[in-house]
């Protein structure tokens, strides 16, 4: 076995475009003024789909050693969620894909397991709370994926670590409940701060550094996070982007922000404080942001979609709205879904060996030349396409009507009719450029129907594309 | 090989068709009993016992030939149930014609029925084969699928969207106007163009008045060998052509398909015209009952059938070419739009209008001296459908 130390080789984040603003919450609930906004997953997103959106940027020609998925809000219980991510990344059937679900401490386990296996850790969370609660206002939905690999490629390695654990009632939730309960805030503060201090001291000693150059502290208890950051970070603290506390994704999101700015040979102290504290000290090897893949963390300039409170409640299933007078769609069936795993989850079509015609979904008999069983697999999940024609379906069953559908012609061949997401109807026109995104079309009979949708590429690009078209 | 057709080999000597609509008090059984009774009454020389074989078309109102044999208490006769999406009624008719033409039976009856208003849902509801949840047909509704034609057509021919909207409105206005003259139609009211254009949106630019009626209904036809026709009626109508095409369904996955045409219709029309010996359909046909499931469909059909030049359907429609008193009457009975669309019965309903017109029994809608008529039935969606066309006439030869 190699003694080579494994480290982070790449990382990617996904923050949904939806935002729920404090002003909207105040207006809807008649509560006091509230600033800022939280990130909000759309009705067609869950922790699995957001995990795919982050992890898809970390693929290369080598298969990852394993895939670990950490969340406090799994889409399924008693069924592995990581396998859907594994399939959406088109990783075939070899290797381990497993979940770590429960508290946000699972993020620590996923990080350690991915480090040990040269794997990918996927951290993804949906945060909800009772109307008017701090969790509702201060939560954030997001996903992060971090890939570990061999020393030469590593941009950051763990050089010290330590943990503390304690049993106390700060926050808790029984399975099935949608909101957590909290004890008095000051009690949690009393218990957490010494646990964090002990873990930080031990991790720095383990790393043999006096103080880290960058300090990030994640804790579901907002005042603990602030106090511990002040105590251990001071002016070296990295403030995470203002999207709210994002559970299992929170520490990793903040780590990604630190990796974006940390210079070679600097150190990063990261603490995930959940019923104790896990402190890691990283030594940075690469240039700032060298490991980042996919889009940067959202800044103030990024396009966001402000979501009204009633829409948020509908998306979260907290109010039941009148639906179009249409039957619920059928539950996806087990055997057909398994047979079409590569297509449904990986968006893999086929290209004819004889004439090159691309088929989505894959076909055995070519629609162009009629050849049978002379096809190569062709993954189109990362392809872009253009809208050939489109419609807004106000009659269709949808968890968030109206449903927008577009006929998409892919660059390099292939066409399919796809639902459009993260876009207003006015944003769709013939010629608009779209990219693929993994989503949950609907849930029927307790089965989540995962598949791919089209979303317009960044507004500026789309405008240029329409002009060319 | 070759598609030879059965021109003038069989004739229709009796027909029945119920009123279409929201028939809350009538079951599919009731509708079939009514349609068959009217059909038999129109051919007094044929008793029920003399009908040798039956065909029944229904998409979703029951399975097997017993959907017909039970309500009619048939005496152990052969009944074949067929299904071909919205062209189901035509498929029933086509197969009954072939059974007589080949000599297997002397007298056959084609029937079709659909009971759509018992589901509690808007529009068509169909039972699906268990699948993986990725097919767009599972979620995208029929009006949405056909609304894809509108932006694609405007884009291809540079048609001003408002002009397109006006033509779609004209289709609905014309078919409602025709239906208002038809006592069996679901909607019997003329609708002002302003109201049609401003109706609540269903999908894309299609409003409720751009969509066909969702209805219950049944229809039936009696088919005999042409040489026997005059034994049963002095005014039979003769089958000139029967054509059916099932497309490969490649439109939705083929970037070369541009959503401004139904290749299935082009092919079935060419086959039908060849069988009937028609070379100039716009001049030779007196009427055509076509599948106006949604208003843009009728516009595209005019071009696919050679009744308009490519890119000209909008202007022809607005010029009144297809009005009841136009160059060729399209959907003189009101069409799917206002007569209603009980899927399994619609193909036979189209035939029923030809039957009335050729016999001079079409009342206020009666066309002067019609020669040849057409029925066209489409099942499926743009780029992935089946198409049926029949041509019938009042005279042999």
Give the termini distance of chain B in whole angstroms: 24 Å
Question: What's the order of the H and E elements of chain B?
Answer: EHEHEHEHHHHEEEHEHHEHHEHHEE
* Structural class determined from secondary elements of chain B: alpha/beta
Low-confidence stretches of chain B are: none
- Give the proportion of residues in helices of chain A: 10-25%
The helical percent of chain B reads 25-40%
CATH class of the largest domain in chain B: Alpha Beta
Report Rg of chain B.
20 Å
Q: Report the average pLDDT across residues of chain A.
A: 93
Low-confidence stretches of chain A: 462-469
Rounded to the nearest angstrom, the distance between the terminal CA atoms of chain A is 55 Å
Rg of chain A, alpha carbons: 23 Å
| Domains of chain B (count) | 2
Mean pLDDT of chain B: 97
- Give the name of the CATH superfamily of the largest domain in chain B: Thiolase/Chalcone synthase
Looking at how many chains there are and whether they match, the oligomeric state comes to heterodimer
Q: Which sequence of strands runs across the widest sheet of chain A? A: 1-7-6-4-5
For the record, what CATH class of the largest domain in chain A applies?
Alpha Beta
Could you give the order of strands across the largest sheet of chain B?
Answer: 3-2-4-7-1-8-12-11-9-10
E-strand count of chain B: 12
């Amino acid at each position: 076995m190699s003694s080579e130390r494994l480290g982070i080789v790449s990382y990617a984040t996904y923050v949904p475009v939806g935002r729920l603003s404090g002003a909207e919450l105040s207006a809807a609930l008649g509560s006091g003024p509230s600033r800022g906004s939280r990130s909000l997953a759309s009705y067609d997103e869950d922790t699995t789909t957001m995990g795919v959106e982050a992890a898809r940027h970390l693929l290369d020609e080598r298969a990852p050693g394993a895939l670990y998925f950490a969340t406090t809000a799994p889409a399924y219980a008693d069924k592995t969620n990581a396998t859907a991510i594994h399939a959406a990344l088109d990783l075939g059937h070899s290797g381990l894909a497993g979940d770590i679900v429960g508290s946000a401490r699972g993020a620590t386990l996923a990080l350690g397991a991915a480090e040990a296996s040269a794997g990918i850790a996927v951290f993804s969370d949906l945060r909800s709370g009772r109307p008017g609660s701090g969790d509702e206002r201060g939560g954030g939905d997001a996903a992060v994926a971090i890939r570990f690999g061999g020393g030469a490629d590593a941009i950051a390695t763990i050089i010290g670590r330590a943990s503390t654990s304690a049993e106390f009632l700060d926050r808790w939730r029984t399975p099935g409940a949608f909101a957590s309960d909290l004890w008095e805030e000051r009690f949690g503060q009393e218990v957490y701060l010494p646990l964090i201090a002990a873990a930080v001291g031990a991790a720095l000693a383990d790393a043999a550094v006096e103080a880290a150059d960058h300090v990030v502290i994640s804790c579901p208890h907002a005042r603990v996070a602030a106090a511990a950051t002040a105590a251990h970070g001071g002016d070296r603290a990295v403030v995470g982007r203002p999207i709210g506390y994002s559970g299992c994704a929170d520490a990793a999101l903040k780590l990604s922000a630190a990796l974006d700015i940390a210079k070679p040979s600097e150190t990063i102290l990261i603490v995930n404080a959940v019923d104790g504290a896990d402190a890691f000290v990283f030594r940075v090897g690469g240039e700032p942001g060298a490991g980042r893949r996919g889009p940067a963390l959202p800044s103030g300039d990024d396009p966001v979609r402000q979501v009204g409170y009633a829409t948020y409640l509908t998306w979260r299933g907290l109010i039941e709205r009148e639906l179009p007078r249409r039957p619920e769609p059928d539950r996806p069936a087990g055997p057909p879904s398994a047979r079409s795993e590569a297509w449904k989850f990986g968006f893999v079509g086929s290209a004819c060996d004889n004439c090159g015609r691309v088929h989505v979904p894959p076909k055995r008999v070519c629609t162009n030349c009629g050849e049978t069983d002379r096809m190569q697999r062709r993954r189109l999940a990362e392809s872009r396409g253009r809208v050939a024609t489109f419609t807004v379906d106000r009659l269709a069953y949808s968890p968030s009507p109206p449903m927008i559908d577009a006929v998409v012609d892919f660059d390099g061949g292939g066409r399919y009719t796809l639902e459009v997401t993260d876009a207003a109807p006015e944003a769709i026109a013939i010629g608009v450029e779209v990219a693929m995104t993994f989503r949950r079309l609907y849930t029927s009979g307790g089965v989540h129907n995962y598949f791919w949708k089209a979303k317009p590429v960044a507004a500026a690009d789309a405008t240029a594309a329409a002009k060319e078209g | 090989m070759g598609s030879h057709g059965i021109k003038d080999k069989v004739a229709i000597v009796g027909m029945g068709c119920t009123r279409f609509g929201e028939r809350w008090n009538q079951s599919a059984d009731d509708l079939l009993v009514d349609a068959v009774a009217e059909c038999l009454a129109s051919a007094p020389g044929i008793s029920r016992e003399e009908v040798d074989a039956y065909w029944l078309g229904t998409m979703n109102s029951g399975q097997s030939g017993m959907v017909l044999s039970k309500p009619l208490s048939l005496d152990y006769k052969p009944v074949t149930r067929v299904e071909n999406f919205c062209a189901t009624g035509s498929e029933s008719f086509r197969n009954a014609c072939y059974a007589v033409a080949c000599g297997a039976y002397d007298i056959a009856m084609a029937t079709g029925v659909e009971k759509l208003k018992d589901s509690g849902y808007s529009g068509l509801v169909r039972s699906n084969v268990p699948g993986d949840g990725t097919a767009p047909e599972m979620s995208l509704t029929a009006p949405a699928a056909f609304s894809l034609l509108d932006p694609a057509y405007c884009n291809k021919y540079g048609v001003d969207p408002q002009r397109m909207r006006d033509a779609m409105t004209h289709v609905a206005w014309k078919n409602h106007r025709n239906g208002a003259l038809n006592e069996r139609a679901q909607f019997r009211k003329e609708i002002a163009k302003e109201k049609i254009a401003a109706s609540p949106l269903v999908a894309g630019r299609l409003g409720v008045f751009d969509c066909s009626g969702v209805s219950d209904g049944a229809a039936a036809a009696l088919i005999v060998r042409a040489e026997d026709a005059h034994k049963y009626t002095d005014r039979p109508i003769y089958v000139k052509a029967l054509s059916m095409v099932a497309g490969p369904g490649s439109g939705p996955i083929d970037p070369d398909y541009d959503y401004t045409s139904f290749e299935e219709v082009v092919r079935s029309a060419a086959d039908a015209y060849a069988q009937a010996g028609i070379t100039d359909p716009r001049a030779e046909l007196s009427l055509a009952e076509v599948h106006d499931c949604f208003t843009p469909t009728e516009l595209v059909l005019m071009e696919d059938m050679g009744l308009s030049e490519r890119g000209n359907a909008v202007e022809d429609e607005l010029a009144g070419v297809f009005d009841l008193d136009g160059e060729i009457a399209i959907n003189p009975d009101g069409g799917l739009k206002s007569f209603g669309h009980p899927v399994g019965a619609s193909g036979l309903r189209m035939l029923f209008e030809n039957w009335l017109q050729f016999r001079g029994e079409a009342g206020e809608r009666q066309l002067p001296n019609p020669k040849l008529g057409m029925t066209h039935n489409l099942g499926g969606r743009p780029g992935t459908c089946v198409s049926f066309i029949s041509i019938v006439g009042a005279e042999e030869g």
